[in-house]
Specification:
Blueprint lengths: L1 E2 L7 E3 H8 L6 E5 L2 H6 L7 E3 L4 E7 L6 E7 L3 E2 L9 E5 L8 E2 L2 H8 L6 E5 L2 H6 L10 E2 L5 E9 L5 E12 L10 E4 L8 E2 L5 H5 L5 E6 L2 H6 L10 E2 L5 E10 L5 E11 L11 E5 L6 E3 L5 H5 L7 E6 L16 E3 L2 E9 L11 E13 L31 H4 L7
Parallel strand pairs: 1-7, 8-13, 14-19, 20-25
Antiparallel strand pairs: 2-4, 3-5, 5-6, 9-11, 10-12, 12-13, 15-17, 16-18, 18-19, 21-23, 22-24, 24-25
Length: about 425
């Protein structure tokens, strides 16, 4: 018999032994707890005997003659099998499947048998079928659940003694999270012309969450790491691409309750800065009216700044300040009145301006404007005349006009 509660005792159906001792029902069979009782025919045991003793005695008597024999009967007690609790079988499926999916029940069976290979496992759609061993499920074939979303599977676990237990587990179908598509790249401007930049990946969380709550977004450098939820990017707010100019990452959106997840991709693009002359020569004009200001044609420096690049790909804007808060009007660029100072040129790579946006990748170039004063003549001249002394009286002499500079100008160093 099977020890149902593991206490060392069980109920034995003695009728089963009677069928063995007297298959043709020719004799009177009784059972007794002691040999003496068997010989005296006293204190017969009930057909359903709770095993107090491990050995009882059988009295087989011919009622016609009164002759009998007594034989011992060993009661063998077997424990029911014990297994670990069976985990629910959870599948993550697209909601279009309407709560149905294929399950492989042999994986559950093999998991039980891995530690106890001598057990016999069978599965059923109802507890009653498991008790009666009716309509077992073919565990070696793919199983399509017959109840949407969640269904109970009953497992009969039997040992070699015929003792068994009935356990159960759930087939559960959870929805895969929605995830934003991969059509929108994450673009940042290069900061030093090397093709690498820092990305705050968390700026993409809202897009990939697609309005869902209870989800967590993680970023990974490989599909395998995304599938395995392996952390390979320590700081999502400051990730520097490891492949020059452009790199693809993998985005995992996981339901924190069910563990179901979806994976998409994210393309990182380092947008190039315009390659212009960052140190153009100063733009100089003369102070024609000695008032300290002059009219500049700022556009004269555009060719030098562009350094031979196609002007269609770079836009130039001019500002009074380095913070680019005060822009010089386009109408004033060719006739800009100013004293000596530094203005700032914003050079933008127009190919980095996305549709619907106005800002692209740019650099700021300082441009020095210089107003040069006019030379001033000296008051030493008499009637605007400079006199030379002739040595030989022939009315001719060689004159080095450079010698007149100091006399003619207030500041000879200006020439």
């Amino acid at each position: 018999a099977c020890d149902d509660d593991y206490d060392g005792h069980a109920f034995f159906d003695l009728n089963e032994a009677t069928e063995i001792f007297d298959p043709f029902e020719e004799y009177t069979i009784t059972y007794h707890i002691t040999e003496q009782n068997a010989h005296s025919g006293q204190q017969e045991l009930a057909d359903s005997y709770y095993s107090v003793a491990s050995t009882i005695y059988v009295r087989v008597e011919n009622e016609d003659t009164g002759c009998y024999i007594v034989r011992p009967l060993e009661l063998e007690l077997s424990e029911k099998p014990e297994i670990d609790s069976i985990e629910d079988y959870v599948l993550c499926e697209d909601e279009d499947n309407n709560g149905f999916a294929i399950f492989y029940l042999d994986t559950v069976r093999d998991g039980i048998l891995a530690s106890q290979p001598d057990l016999t496992i069978s599965m059923y759609l109802s507890e009653a079928d498991a008790e009666a061993i009716n309509n077992p499920i073919d565990m070696d074939s793919p199983f399509l659940n017959t109840v949407a979303d969640q269904q109970t599977i009953w497992v009969r676990v039997e040992n070699s003694a015929g003792c068994y237990i009935i356990e159960s587990f759930e087939l559960i179908i959870e929805d895969i999270p929605h995830i934003g598509n991969a059509s929108i790249p994450h673009e940042v401007c290069d900061d030093d012309f090397d093709g690498f930049a820092s990305f705050d990946l968390t700026q993409n969380d809202t897009h990939y969450l697609a309005g869902q709550l209870g989800m967590v977004v993680t970023y990974h450098t490989s599909l395998a790491n995304a599938e395995g939820d392996i952390t390979d990017i320590p700081d999502f707010t400051n990730y520097v691409n490891t492949i020059i100019n452009a790199q693809e990452l993998y985005v995992r959106v996981e339901n924190q309750t069910t563990g179901c997840y979806a994976i998409s991709t994210l393309t990182l693009i380092v947008e190039p800065l315009p390659k212009v002359d960052m140190e153009p020569t100063a733009l100089e004009v003369c102070d024609d009216d000695t008032d300290g200001t002059a009219i500049f044609d700022i556009t004269e420096k555009e060719a030098e700044i562009l350094s031979g690049q196609n002007p269609a790909g770079i836009s130039l804007e001019y500002f009074e300040d380095e913070a680019l808060t005060t822009q010089i009007a386009t109408a004033d660029l060719t006739a800009y009145v100013s004293d000596s100072k530094t203005i700032y040129v914003k050079a933008t790579n127009v190919y980095t301006i996305n549709p619907g946006e106005t800002e692209g990748c740019y650099v700021v170039i300082p441009l020095e404007l210089i107003v040069n004063p006019l030379p001033e003549f000296s008051d030493n001249l008499i009637d605007d005349t400079y006199y030379f002394c002739e040595d030989d009286g022939d009315g001719h002499m060689v004159v080095d006009v450079n010698d007149m500079t100091d006399a003619l100008l207030v500041d000879g160093s200006i020439m």
